[in-house]
Amino acid sequence: MGSSRDIAIGPVAVVSLLLGTLLQKEYDPHTQRDEYYRLIFTATFFAGITQATLGVLRLGFLIDFLSHASVVGFMGGAAITIALQQLKGFLGISTKQFTKETDIISVMKAVFKSAHHGWNWQTIVIGSSFLAFLLVAKFIGKKNKKLFWVPAIAPLISVILSTFFVYITHANKDGVSIVGDIEKRINPPSLDKIYFSGDNLLKGFKIGAVAGMIALTEAVAIGRTFASMKDYQVDGNKEMVALGTMNIVGSMTSCYVATGSFSRSAVNYMAGCQTAVSNIVMSIVVLLTVMFLTPLFKYTPNAILSSIIISAVIGLIDIDAAILIWKIDKLDFLACMGAFFGVVFKSVETGLMIAVIISFAKILLQVTRPRTAILGKIPMTSVYRNIVQYPEAIKIPGVLIVRVDSAIYFSNSNYIKERILRWLTEEEDNLKATYQPKIQYLIVEMSPVTDIDTSGIHAFEELYSSLLKRDIQLILANPGQSVLDKLYASGFPDLIGEDKIFLTVADAVHTCSPKFSDDV
After folding, report:
1. Which domains does the chain have, with CATH numbers?
2. What's the CA gap between 501 and 122, in Å, rounded?
3. CA-CA distance, 292 to 106, in Å (whole number)?
4. Are 445 and 478 in contact (CB under 8 A)?
5. pLDDT in tens, 161-190
6. pTM given for the model
């Protein structure tokens, strides 16, 4: 149902962490297993409903509010949180001695508290050895692209070797925790386990909506990444409908929220997949494994699973991207760090909330405080540019040219009016100090102004009244068709005079100061 040819679907670390964290706040997976499972299926169902609804209503733009900077920070924080959670299996700490909290302070307290009696040295040796092997394999794959299969197959080799080692040495009798028996069966139906009423319905909806949005963000980003590599387009709304339908069906067959996996998609891409049939092949292999090969994993040590997860999530920490964000936009960097520290020191949802709040604040700041610039003429041309960007640009005597770089709405109209008047006051003070002719014309370059509302028109009317008192004429240059229609509908051209609206700044200057505009 989707449009991506490369995306590989399945459970992913970030969504799994998010879902597990939110669910464990409601029910304990060990003592309240049935309620925990039911809430998982309920959250998955509503994650699918959320995703499909966004796609059907073509509301995919909502996920864009999670900016790239926020996602970088969130992924980095989530990677550290996931790695910290794996210390339980990596060090051989029992579930009772470990904390249910995900923040770094609680986890490290639990780790050091259990240092005397909770750690198992055999487990640590197994985990450390194979973690080193996995990291070396990943390094080889990065250094030589032709060897992409080395890091791809390294986890499987690790599982086979560690399982064989534990089996022949009976290390599980010395305290090495193993996976144990896994049922050989296809997922049973779970439609009857989804909560459709009561308090758990609301809990499932809230958890599912959050997990669904994060899953969407990751899947669409991955799909677009690989589509750009192969030069084709991904329809975000189709992807949402496909993911939503998949998770709705999944919730009815004992599955939890799945989405696009970057690592699996990368292997898919490198292996030369051309269509989504690769997902069908992958599903068949998983089915065969579940049906026939699960007894082989009985002696797999939990430490090796922790090592595989730790080696995988290290790649989620993108320091280079964070440095680039710092160089480009400090507010973006603030959103990135807000998400990162929120996840690491508090919780996943706190980090997301901080990132979204900072991103919204940035949008509001840009909307309410748009850029304005004074323009000057580039010598020997009829081009007018920002005098800060182009120091050679010359101001026109008796004329102040101001450009507004934004649509003019109720949120910024008063600021724009006051900013123009401040420009005017500063310019008049400078002219008085140097005994130059006073300003007679104010030209507002409006080509970047894509729209205007009644508050914006009212602000221009107030600007016109203020200029009349200073004996300065207001002139508009190059307003767009939409803006012009609204100005005429309000009668503003009748107020200032229809001959005060020009096609270009050059035309306006030629009318106001013909001799200077021709000579320069």
Report:
1. 8-184+191-365 (no CATH), 372-519 (3.30.750.24)
2. 82
3. 40
4. yes
5. 999 999 898 888 888 888 888 877 788 899
6. 0.71
